[in-house]
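Justification of computing resources. Each target in the renewal requires a structure prediction run like the one illustrated here; the chain below, 75 residues long, is used simply to show the kind of job we budget for.
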Amino acid sequence: MELRHKFDLNLLLNQTNMARSNFYYYQKKTKSTDKYQEIKEFIKSIYHKHKGRYGYRRITDELNSKGLIINHKQF
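Resulting structure tokens:
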């Protein structure tokens, strides 16, 4: 992002072979927060609590038993 202030954006995009829309997409993405951050931390705690022996099915079952439904297609 720093180079954009020193050089023309079109020049930078041409040098990197990047589309303008991709540039603005990634710029917007870096400013937003992760809406699943709490759920990810909870999944990591389940995984480490069981010493890495739980796969995605067992973790999903444990999340469902706690009342957390993440996938809207699941039920």
